[in-house]
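Researcher: Next sequence.
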Amino acid sequence: MFYNVADIVDKTIKIEEKRIIMINDLIDENRNLPTINLLGKVFQKESFKMISYYKDIKREISNCEVEEIDFRTYDKISFLITEFYNSMFIPHTKTPKEYLKHALNIAVDELALFIDIQGRIVNNSRNTYKITYEILSKIILRLEKQVENIDKLLKN
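Model: Next structure:
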């Protein structure tokens, strides 16, 4: 069995699914705070869009011959993603600003994770990982946009 970027995308979908569960918990906890509820629903909708985007990427990948990622590199990448996944939480927030700050921290950490993953794949390039690099670049661009959007909300 070999690993490729589709396996990384699968793990990315799991991150978004956990984010949705966390947001649902936040909404349930803060039923009396309409602003937090509204923000939660906005972020929840964005997570569903991200899952759809990642599934589109998986369909795109299935039509290509994707490069294999060597086991040692994939193992480290998988460990980093799992570590990020396990570290995700939403603290008990009572203000929209607190929630946005935490959402921004998670988004920045996720962006850094994928930049790190892309770097590990490039550094291990006995082959050229053209398709893998392109897919990770798309994910990174999407995550950068997410960080920018949260940052704009926080500044308003």
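Model: Residues 5-155 form a domain with the Ferritin fold (CATH 1.20.1260). The longest helix spans residues 34-62.
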